[in-house]
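Hello again, I could really use a second opinion on something today. I've been puzzling over a protein and I'd love to understand its fold better. I'm sending you its amino acid sequence along with the backbone structure tokens. It would help a lot if you went through both lines with me. I've dropped the whole record in just underneath, so have a look.
***
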Amino acid sequence: MSGDKGVIANPNADPEGGELDPKQVNALTAQVMNNPEVLAAMQSKLAGMIGMSSGYYDSLPNIVKRRVKALKNVQIEKIKIEGDFYKELHELEVRYAAKYVPLFEKRTQIVNGSYEPNDEEANYPSDEEEEEEENELSDGVKEKVKVEDKPEDKNIKGIPEFWLTILKNVDTFAENIQEHDEDILKHLIDIRVTLIKEPAGFKLDFVFSPNDYFTNEILTKEYELRCTPDFEDPWSYDGIAIVKCKGCQINWNKGKNVTEKTVTKKQKHKSKGQIRTVSKTVKNDSFFNFFDPPEVPEKLEDLEDETHALLQADWEMGELLRQNIVPRAVLFFTGEALDDYDEDYDEDEESEEDEEEDSDEDEDFSPLKGNKKGAK
């Protein structure tokens, strides 16, 4: 009967009859789980099964399908209520954002050294732990040593490289910060979020101290949100979503534009055979390409796949700044917020070949890469 359709074979069964010893089953399971090719085949098979329609709906009589259509109209009414909820939610966020302003202003003052917190303000419960370092002795025993301030430490103003450290702590931004960007980002003294009620959206202000690279005091990035559903495609609605973004012009000082580079190329004349060298200015990889995102067409369905991926990555960065990094900046500076942030992502065990392929794909979709199609 083992060959009959619909009969599930006993996984513990011995082909020659009887059942395998549990130890044998465990050993065979371990062999399978440690075989990358077998695992890949299993995963591919399972992936192909997800989302497959059973075909049951298509087989239903029209009178039943008519009732299903009624259910879809019920679902549309539910989506309308959801839209009202998210619209009110955004308006509530705008109202409460004003209450955070004094706190963020105080944070800016402390970071930039214009305000020195008093003993009461600096009395955080974990200070005793943070002021001690563990030194491991030769025999493996750990000894706690009190960290003493050096005389020259008194000359340090505020918290140096606060925002640069935060951006470098978050992989999404760190992978796009080039070496030539770091000197500029050391002048980043604040990142502010302004929520906009109508039309719904938010603005990011990157505030810089005077520097040799550009004359702007503030670089801005604006995002437009859609709180209510688009009833031309109601089933795609999943709450508040970014639909557009706009950067700003950076007024670079002469020879300081890190978003461009000059490349030279030799050209041979077709008939005369003469060779000439020509110079061309092209986009350069830089964090500051963040302020020059791809344009969004009137109809999102007209987006090319690569441009769509670039915008998706850009919008995720904007949301990350708005929802997580700016509100909890100090915890991203110390690294404490990174544990919670990393828990949102599953660690996939992949072969080196898979990792290399993923790395290539990720590079194509970076919104801050200057040499990709669609990145203006």
Summary: Residues 88 and 194 are 17 Å apart (CA to CA). Confidence is low (pLDDT under 50) at residues 1-16, 349-353, 358-365, 371-376. The beta strands are 132-136, 142-146, 188-196, 201-208, 218-226, 241-246, 260-268, 275-283.
